[in-house]
Fold:
Amino acid sequence: MSTEKIRVKVTESGQVLDVVVLSKQASGIQIVLGEGVHNVKCDLSPTRNGQGYAGTIAGREIVYERSRDQVTADLDLRSPTLHDPRRR
Structure:
C-alpha cells in the first residue's frame, strides 16, 4: 500500500510542504505533518468559496489549493464504483 502525499502551502511564509494524507473526502482531508514521534495531525476543511482546503497547525494556517470539485474527481478516479451502488 502506498501513501498518498499532497503539497500544502503555509500562508505566512509561502513555504510549500509535502504531507501524508490519512483520509481524503470531499467534506474534508486529514493530514499528518512530520514523521515519527514529532508528527502532528491536522484536519483541512473546504473554504467558503470551495476553491481550496484550509486548516491550522501550531497556530499557522496551511492551505491545499485544489477545489472541492477537483478533489471529488480525484476520488472518483481512484475508486469509480464507490458512488454507484448498482455496479460491482
Remarks:
- The two ends are 22 Å apart (CA to CA).
- Residues 5-78 form one domain.
- Helices lie at 68-78.
